[in-house]
Structure formats: structure tokens, C-alpha cells
Amino acid sequence: MTLSISLDVAREWTPAEDATTAESSAPRLAGSTSRFSRFVLLGGIVLTAALFASGAWQRRWIADDGLIVLRTVRNLLAGNGPVFNMNERVETNTSTAWTYVVWFFSWLTGLRLEYVVLGISLTLSVVAIVIAMVGAARLWGGTRSALLIPAGALVYIALPPARDYASSGLESCLVLFWLAVLWWSMIRWSQAQIVRPTAFFALACWAGLAPLIRPELAMVGALALLMLVCAPVPSTRLRPWVFRGAAVAVAGLVPGSYQIWRMGYYGLPYPNTAVAKEASGAKWKQGFLYLQDLAGPYWLWVPLVVLAMWAGVVLWEQRTPGSAADPAVVGSVVTDRKRLLLNKIHQFSRWLHSPAAVVTLMVGSGVLLTVYELRVGGDFMHGRMLLPQLFCLLMPVMVLPIRLVAEAASHERPSLDWPFAIVLVAFLGTIGWAWFAAETTAITSGTTIRASGIVDERIYYVLYSGHDHPIRAEDYLDFPRMRPLVRDIAQTPNGGLVINLPDQTYWYVIPPPEPVPAGGIGHTVFFLNLGMSSMNVPLNVRVLDPVGLAYPIAAHTDRLTDGRIGHDKNLDASWVVADTGVVALHPWMAAHIREAQVEQARTALSCPATQDLIASTRAPLTFSRFRHNIVQAFGFASTRIERIAKYDLRRCGLPEPLPPAPVEPR
Predict the structure, then answer these.
(1) Selection from 420, 424, 400 nearest residue 155 by Cα
(2) pLDDT one-digit tens code per residue, 14-50
(3) Cα separation of 299 and 294, whole Å?
(4) Buried/exposed 600-615: b ≥16 CB within 10 Å, e otherwise
(5) What pLDDT shows up at residue 505?
(6) How many helices (H) and strands (E) does the chain have?
(7) Which residues contact 659 (CB under 8 A, 6 or more apart)?
(8) Partners of 381 in the beta sheet?
């Protein structure tokens, strides 16, 4: 029993083939099937893409986290470099590739950033579905007398979170696109007997981009690359070990070069978000809550079981009863243990160059990524971080065959065609589930954050902003406290630290000490919602957050044990008062900030280890600084600051400062 299909496998493969349109692929996918079968396949792909595009458009939006990406793009376009705040080198975006994709198309078109990212997101999401379906069609397309119809694709597009994050401005669309192209390319490679070296290296390069798409995708890219180099190498003048070494070098060229640059420029071996969210930490209980939050309301296990049953029946029908092992693969019978071991290794190497191995790769990657997401605790956005995992599991069954007629001998008595009946019931069940899931609202709490910390992010911002489709930065000015923030900044030309009071009723601007230099000291905003705040203020306004996505001091504190996932760090405002150098005395300072804590934080910031950490992002980027950052990058990543300044003094061995003398206002 195999998953291979009777395509023209002797055809030389290049990644450019079939890439332009699904229509050009359909005749080769269908092989000897009728024009009607090809029409059904093409029609199914077009219909699925249209349904997904329509559903995504109806739910279009840009998330607050999506606006964080655009702030970095604004700085790139302004010539300030890939930073969130001017003169502070912090990588606030998890997906490096997504930042530069958005920057490139923004530079190319000159259009408004929000519309550029919306267009890219929708396009890549829909194209990813199409490519995944074409790849699955290549897998199953050799089935005789059968129609290839949408199956797993219907499951994916029916999920509300899938349509929510088809836009959103986040990198979800790029993740799906990378996975789909990898899947399609690997399937084509596995079916080709003659592979051009240039095509092979192009596939290796694509797999190598994984950590730049998202860091955890490095697991998928590494497995794909391992499969490529362990399989028989294409015919070439190079020795096999040289060819394999060249493939690894090609795969590692771009991510390796960027990694060296990242460590020197940012002073970290991975994005700052991985430090802020403790990507190596374990929160298994929260992770299973996150899985249940997606799988439970939609009964997601039902279509997965149904599709597995459908695919199993098709494979059972394709089996060749009583077939012996292929002598070309197995080779002659050997008795010597060493030769037997070498023979098994050779068989395994040949198996790696097969559609079955590619299916194993994608399904295994889906399981591996799911385990990782469970370990880190998932996310606070409903369903978002499990969509790539689901996509991996569904790619082999994005389309599945359904037989047109039973292939029974004419002399046999007519009987119920059980395989056909099971497949038909599975197809109708998939459609029924898709209808149910598309109309299901999993989270009905609106703007109330539940105990799990998970929210329907799109609905949350729709309700709070009052816009059905919050896309532009100014749409978020109707979010509570945003217009007063812009107003207070405009009314304080001397600058200062802008802090939202604990009850979140109004802003407090802590002024700079006198004498104020000409032009003021500029503003610093300390607020949780980085995207909407940073995109509605000029680039010379520094925007920091207590979670640490854009603020290294907060990022390097320890997480709260029972804090909300994704928000389980909360730096006290006294640290940012000490860091910015504004007036640290009452009544000029907000009443909820204690003067003694500010003095403790100011002293704690003088700790040599903390100063070195701060210098890694703020000191001028000289060659010596670049080199020092590379050497210390892993050390900086592991550095942790006590959230309570008094305790951090003990960590550094510093004396506790005397309380400040009271000062009477003039």
C-alpha cells in the first residue's frame, strides 16, 4: 500500500512548474481522468478559495499586535532601522520575515501601511489554501474513476479563527503560505525520479527560511532538510557528501547570516518577544486549556476522525492484495548482519524520497508543533497559535477522492458498495460539520476576559473600538483612553512620562526636571496596548509596555506564576520613572507611585549587569559593541531582573538607598 500516484514521475522537476495557476496543473494532476474530473477539481479549488476570501473579508481587521509590526515598518521607512523606538534596538516582532515582507510592499506601493498589510494578509492566506489543495491533489490525483473534491480545506476555512487571522496584520498568513509551499514542493520532489540540483537547492533554501518565519518552525524546517539530505541525492558531478553539505549550507545561509546580525544588533539570539513571553518556559495546564478552548466549542476532533477514516478507506481500496515487496527496493536476501543493516538504511533512504514520507513529515510536524504549544501554554488569542498545527494535519487531506462508480466484476451479484457509502457519508458529514462550525461562536464573553485569559481578540477590539472593521490606526482612537493620550501629548510640549492611572480613568504626565532643555525631553508612553498607542503618536514618542515586548527591562523580569498567558510580566511604574529621569517627587509624580520605590529602582538600574544589558540596546552601535553583543547574546537572554526593585538590590549586592527628603511644592 502506498500513497504514490501514477503521475509522470520521470518528468524533471523544477519549483517553477505548476506555480502560476491551479488551472495549468489540473490536466497533469488528473492524468488519465476525464475532463469532468479535472473541471471538478479546479472548480473545488476555486470555490474553496472564494469562500475563504469572502469569509476573511467579512471579518477583516488589524489587531493591536498587528499595529506593533507597522510601527517597526514605519521606522524602517523613516530610516531609523528595524526598531520599535528610535535609538533603542529592540526586536518586537516575532516573525522577522513578516516585518520585511510588509516593509518591502509598503516601500514598493507607497500605500497606507494598514491597507498594505491587509492586502498581503488576505492574499497570502487564500493562496496558501490553493497551494495546499494543489499539493494534496498531486498526492491523490492518480486515483482512477474518482473525483477530487475539497475535504480538509473545508474544515480549515469553516473555523472562525481561521477567517479571523486570515487578515489581522499578524504573521499567521505567512506561516500558512510557507507551510503550503513546503508541502507542495516536497510532494513534487517525492514524485520525481529526476531532480535538478538547482530545484533541490531551492527547496533546501525554502526549508531553511523556517526560523525567520517563526522561531518554532525551525523544527519543521530542520526535519524537512534532514529528509532531503538523507534521501538519495540527485545525479550530479559532486560526491554525495559534498552535495549534501552544499544543501545544508544553502539552507543555512540566510538564517545563519541573519542570526549573526541579530545577535550583534539586538544583543539577543532570538526576538525580544521570546524573552518577554518566556518561550522556553512550561505551562502545560494552560496549554491544555488553550487546546480545549479551540477544539471543544467546534467539536474539532469530529472532522479529524472523519477525514482520517475517509483517507483510510481510499488507501484500502488502492491496496494491491497479495503483493510482494519490490525487489528493486528490498534487494537480494542477505544474511550478514552488517549488510542487512546497510540494506535497511538504504531502504529507509529510498523511502524518504516518497509521498508517504512527506505525509509523515507534515502530520508529524503538526503533532510536534502542537506539543510545543501545549508546553508554552498556548496564547491569549482564541485559536490563533494552533492554526498552523491544524493546517499541517489537514494538508494531506485538503482534497480527497470520491469514486464515481464501483469497480465490481459484471458477474458478481449487486451488493452495497461499503467503501463508497463510507466515503459519501464522510463527505456529507464534513460539509455538515463545516456548516455547524462556521455558525458557532466559541466565546460569548465579549470584552470580559475570562479566568483562562483567552479572548476572541477580534470581537474584543470590535466592541471596544465601536468599529465593525478596525483597520486604520485612527479607528483605535475610539478605544478607551486613546484620544486623551494624543491630546495630553499635544498639550505638554516639554515632554514627560505619560502613565495611565491604575483605575485606567485618565492619563498622568510626569514632567521633566527643571531647567527643561530647549525643545523639551520628548514623551515616553508607558501602556499595555503597544500597537494602537504607538501608531497614533509620532515616531519620536517612545512607547514602552509593562509586559516587555518593547521594553527590555520589563522583558527580563521573571513571569508571574499565575499571570494571564502572554501578559504574565508586569513591571512596576517606578522602574520607568527612574529610567526616564522625570521628576520622582510628589505632587509632580502620580500618587500611586512611591518615591522610595523609585529611588530603589534608580539604584538597581546602576547594577553593572543591568547596565551592560541596557547598553546592548541603547549604546551606539560601534564594531566593539556589535562584537560584544554577539559574545554576550546568550548571557543577555538568560539575565533576569527582580520585578521588585528592593529585591533586585540584593541580587546585585547593592545597598538600599535612603528615602528621599520631603520637598514642599513652590
Answers:
(1) 400
(2) 444 443 434 444 444 434 446 888 899 999 999 999 9
(3) 9
(4) bbbbbbebeebebbbe
(5) 79
(6) 29, 6
(7) 595, 596, 599
(8) 455
Alpha helices in 165-217 (DSSP H): 172-191, 197-208, 210-213
Helices 337-352 and 218-230 sit at what angle, rounded to 10 degrees?
120
Q: Copy the grid coordinates of residue 132.
A: 495546499
What would the grid cell of residue 221 be?
524546517
Q: Please, which residues have CB within 8 angstroms of residue 269's CB and are 6 or more apart in sequence? A: 259, 262, 263, 633, 634, 637
CA 609 to chain centre: 32
Q: Supply the pTM of this predicted model.
A: 0.91
Tell me the pLDDT band of 649, cut-offs 50, 70 and 90: very high
Residue 141: count of CB within 10 angstroms of its CB? 25
C-alpha–C-alpha distance, residues 203 and 554, integer Å: 40
Helix axes 608-618, 645-652, angle to 10 degrees: 110
Cα 244 to Cα 248: distance, rounded to the nearest angstrom: 6
How many Cα atoms sit within 13 Å of 235 on the Cβ side? 4
Which stretches within 400-507 are classed as H helix?
A: 418-438, 457-465, 482-490
Dist CA 409 CA 489 (whole Å):
83
Q: Position 217: which residue type?
A: L
Q: Which residue has the cell 479551540?
A: 294
Nearest-angstrom CA–CA distance, 206 and 208: 5
Q: For position 445, what pLDDT does the model report?
A: 86
Distance separating alpha carbons of residues 275 and 82, to the nearest angstrom: 18
Q: How far apart are CA 240 and CA 376, in angstroms?
A: 39
Sheet holding 523-526, edge to edge: 507-510, 496-500, 523-526, 542-544
